[in-house]
Amino acid sequence: xxxxxxxxxxxxxxxxxxxxxxxxxxxxxxxxxxxxxxxxxxxxxxxxxxxxxxxxxxxxxxxxxxxxxxxxxxxxxxxxxxxxxxxxxxxxxxxxxxxxxxxxxxxxxxxxxxxxxxxxxxxxxxxxxxxxxxxxxxxxxxxxxxxxxxxxxxxxxxxxxxxxxxxxxxxxxxxxxxxxxxxxxxxxxxxxxxxxxxxxxxxxxxxxxxxxxxxxxxxxxxxxxxxxxxxxxxxxxxxxxxxxxxxxxxxxxxxxxxxxxxxxxxxxxxxxxxxxxxxxxxxxxxxxxxxxxxxxxxxxxxxxxxxxxxxxxxxxxxxxxxxxxxxxxxxxxxxxxxxxxxxxxxxxxxxxxxxxxxxxxxxxxxxxxxxxxxxxxxxx
Length: 380
Known about the structure:
By secondary structure, the chain is α/β, with parallel strands linked by helices. The chain has twelve helices and twelve strands.
């Protein structure tokens, strides 16, 4: 009997250790994007404590912002920081400019936990800034290494789905031939430096563009809504888009590798990935407005003035569903990367009323300006 009890206790202890280890591996995988394009966005002095109170251990900034960097000092919040697009030309053309940028925006803040520098966010390769992304990445990387920070800060860029010629089924995904000149050297660079590619994965937009063929539950990452694509079962649309990027990047790297490497497995040419994702929700109605249970349909112009066949997507309830499901699905990996949690940044911390575009573009926030969540969620 004693031996049985001891065996039971040992079994429970091992289970407990596995459970704690699992929590350690998955907790903190999800952060948020702190955007400042709004007239009522709380300042860093209020926002950084809000991160800490809600156990949000990762922050993404679009560009350096000294007040935010000062507020982050000593907090151990891991930071993904972008480079302002207005700086790309100088950083690409002048190594000294990259050295000065690193000195001003990284070395001045030794108590900030910098993890990634994102050189360009969704830059169109055919725009005037397209040719500057890769050389700017190189110069920033060299400046970081010269400053003795190469062991802890990685350099990458951020891309969007428009660079793919197709994305479903994921195995058939590929980059457009017209962007190969842009994406190939970037992928080789991040593979060789060990940095991840940052990809923006927004099922919301994919659904809007093809809502006749995409089920809303699939776009909201609801359980038991999966489909088979190319012979592979996909539980949700987030996994589909993520794996489309993985397949497209692998094809570029395999084709660019020596013939001997082309015969090896995907793991020999793979790069890591970090993700930004989100789902908009309408702002709370004024106190005098009638209660509508959070189901307020969007109106982004001529295309979307009527309710969708399977219900509106731009609602508080759908945003709550998506965000909570997102924090669940990024823990377990995708069909192409099973068992590998995906570091993900929710777009965004607050609504930003100065963002251009349709109304929903200004309402991706998950917190209200007073620090209260728009809807229930937990970061662990």
